[in-house]
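Progress report, Aim 2. The chain analyzed during this reporting quarter is listed below.
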Amino acid sequence: MNIRKNLELFQELIRCGHELYLWSYSPGMDLIHTNCPDTEQSGDYIFMDDLVDHILEYSKTSRHPLVISTFLNLMWVAAFERNQGRLKSIQILGPMFSGANSQQKIREMLDKRQWSVHSKINVLKGLEKIPIIPSNLLWQYTFMLHYCVTGERITSKDLQYMTFPSKEEKPDGESIDKISDEHLGIWASEQEFLNLVRAGSADYRTALDKSSLLSSGIKATANDSLEMAKYNMVVLLTLVSRAAIEGGLSPAVSYNLQDYYSQRIIDAGSVSETSILCNTMLEDYVTRIQQAHNNMDISKTVQSCCDYVTTHITERFTIDFLAARAGYTEYYFSRKFKQEMGMSISEYIKQEKVKKAALMLSTTTMSIQDVSNELAFSSRSYFSDVFQKIMGESPGEYRKTHLKI
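Predicted structure tokens for the chain:
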């Protein structure tokens, strides 16, 4: 495979539709070549400097392309060329906007930077030249760039995301523009995706990718691209929630999940965060649908108890309360539950709390103490002991290896 020729052709194809540039860097992030005629106006010296260390650190542990969001609601895509496992070059496409961003918000964000007026004016002039790329094209460009340098075909689930500045600064992030001129074929593709969700099939990812390539979402205009992404994710969440119920998930559980993820969508600060959250949300729903299918032999009484535990997982309740709710004595109900579920009620409650804790540790920046409090554990030490016993590692160790933001 001639990577150089592939990249040259890729640049020419991209430039047919957008003034979007490719930057080739050495393994040490020294600029080797770019087809951008004016590096200062494009913002290379401004927008990339803060990212160098993070990109290099990422390249040590992952071979997948990286979608980067910066404080100006800009996006970059990085692909990594390797030779016998060693990093040979880093190819970066950008900068680009992923939606019709508010110029006023950009000015406000620039004002927070300690730059001179002259520098800010130059940045604003450069921003005017940066193209807006809808999500379906952004993903296709990322797939194409990765293929050019590796020969590997990937899908959206393989993309990794990185947002700057850090989440703690809570900037207004960029989003994927969800506006398309046509909806041809969308209904059939959408139904294929939802049918796979109802079935609890892992193949839902393939159908979702297909639908995403046909359309970039609802036709509407928001104040900025992050708001647009949130609108679209709420629509997706609603569709998936209803499909999950049709697939056998308890309405109470499905609606509870919808409330939880709706709040997470509202709190999201960037397109990267919404993309990661989307993957987490879909995986959560499909896993629960699979579990519901596996539990078809469980009595309605025990299933109702399981559903109650799931929907009230942040509360404290006793086995006596659950038994009374089911209309049985504690002794009889405990025996019935263990016979059908293969574990005691208390073990099941701990297992469900740890599942929820694992999700929170991997997709939020909540402290371990806050996670423990949220799930109504009596103390952090008890929470850590239970988590360690079920997951085989401490909450802190789990977060280090599974954090997705």
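The two ends are 34 Å apart (CA to CA). The domain at 3-169 is CATH 3.30.450 (Beta-Lactamase). These observations will guide the mutagenesis work planned for the next reporting period.
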